[in-house]
Amino acid sequence: MAELHVIDDALAALLADITPVTAERVALPDAAGRVLAEDVTAQLDVPPYTNSAMDGYALRAADAGQRLPVSQRIAAGTPAMPLAPGSCARIFTGGEIPPGADCVVMQERVEVEGDAAIIPADIPAGDNVRLKGRDVRQGDVLLSAGERLEAAALGHLAGQGVTEVAVRRRPRVALLSTGDEVIDPGTPLKPGQLYNSNRPMLTRLLATFGAEVVSQISVPDDAERTRELLAQAAEDADVVVSTGGVSVGEEDHVKASLEALGELTMWKLAIRPGKPLALGHLPRRQGGQAHFVGLPGNPVSGFVGAWLFLRPLMGALLNCPDLAALPCVTARAEFSTSTGPRQHYMRVTLTFDAEGAHARAFDDQNSSVLSSCIQANALAVIPPHRDIAQGDSISCLWLMG
């Protein structure tokens, strides 16, 4: 009987000697969700000049508590003149603080009399003033290599006038579906057939993890054809992912084909769902090799396996620390369960209140019940040979793309 490996060993084997994919330069609007390939250094101070945080009046704090003439009007984008002694300036949000002023009083606290303003007495220096370089100073590292460019990061870059950035190219993935019984939606089902739910599910998950599915291949239950299609898939992909065909049935040809073509580094894991999982490499004719991940055919096993293995693999290829591991949340179990010799990854929904996090499990945790994954936002990790009662503290992996 083949040895069952633990998940830490499988991850170590999967991520050993990973070389990140190459970089490419893209226009900033096209960089959304991509991973920076190099540090970006700030070329400008942010804000670029000291300015007002609100509409009001700029003055010297020492002049507070007096009736001051309004010597100038400063709108955002309008250059400020030095503040005349013993005066204040009408200023608007984002307007440049005039030289000589050191605070701003909001307009609601000021009484206006003709061309003068009556300033309250309790205005400290620096009040409502945003100093030049408060957010970013020229020469600072604005964003570090390995960061994912989401909304705030894109805004940060645009604020520097950046028009293009160096990002890691998306890892190319060939997605293979095995089995004569698996057909695409749109074709009437015959007896014994089922629709391919893994293909769209994994395509979306891989995109969420930063990858690009470059081919989708249906693999029949034929040993020779399985070898041909695996070899073909490896030529144009960084990673070949298959679903099904990695168990021990007579029509499961993926494991044997992988061993014949390349290298099987690990097979069978002590986890539930997802015991029949194959890891290895496939050689390319032009040199080098593609990583191989063989997921089980059951859709829940494929879903869980994608989060546990494909996500960190893409993180390593993209050199993106955020994808290296899922965030772990300690939660109160709102269910009871018992495990056998395999570590169980239960689909749960995390909710939060004043008492902390609560994990509620889907009733049917069978590996064929894909509906258990729709509302799940976490995987509760239940170690082997463990009895969990309601109220026990458990660890949950938060599913974040």
Give a short synopsis of this structure.
With 401 residues, this protein is an alpha/beta fold. 17% of the residues lie in helices and 32% in strands. The chain folds into four domains: 7-21 and 170-323, Molybdenum Cofactor Biosythetic Enzyme, Chain A; 23-46 and 135-168, Molybdopterin biosynthesis moea protein, domain 2, CATH 3.90.105; 51-130, Molybdopterin biosynthesis moeA protein, domain 3 (Beta Complex), CATH 2.170.190; 328-398, Beta Barrel (Beta-clip).
Chart the SSEs and their pairings.
Blueprint: H1 7-15, E1 23-27, E2 40-41, E3 51-52, E4 56-59, E5 67-74, E6 88-91, E7 103-106, E8 111-113, E9 116-118, E10 129-130, E11 141-143, H2 151-158, E12 164-168, E13 172-178, E14 182-183, E15 194-195, H3 198-208, E16 212-219, H4 223-235, E17 239-243, H5 254-261, E18 263-267, E19 271-272, E20 278-283, E21 289-295, H6 299-318, E22 328-333, E23 337-338, E24 343-353, E25 356-361, E26 378-382, E27 387-388, E28 393-398
Parallel strand pairs: 5-6, 13-16, 13-17, 14-15, 17-21, 19-24, 22-25
Antiparallel strand pairs: 1-12, 2-11, 3-10, 4-6, 4-7, 5-9, 8-9, 18-20, 20-21, 22-28, 23-27, 24-25, 24-26, 26-28
Helix pairs in contact: 3-6, 4-5
